[in-house]
Amino acid sequence: MDEGRYGGCATCGGALPYGRLLVMPEARTCAACGAG
After folding, report:
1. Beta bridge partners of residue 8, listed in sequence order
2. So where are the chain's domains?
């Protein structure tokens, strides 16, 4: 949030699902990018 970005995947740039952010607010990648 300090960088002015929140809720976007740091790898692919796609939006992080709201549910993922609720469970893991510190998430920087989407589930697909985080898996591999």
Report:
1. 15
2. 1-36
Are 18 and 36 contacting, i.e. CB atoms less than 8 angstroms apart? no
At 33, list the tokens: 């990018």
CA atoms within 13 A on the CB side of 34: 12
Q: Coil, helix or strand for 33? A: helix
Residue 15 CB neighbours (<10 A): 12
Q: For 3-36, what is each residue's pLDDT tens digit?
A: 556 689 999 999 999 998 999 999 999 989 988 7
Q: Is the pTM higher than 0.70?
A: no
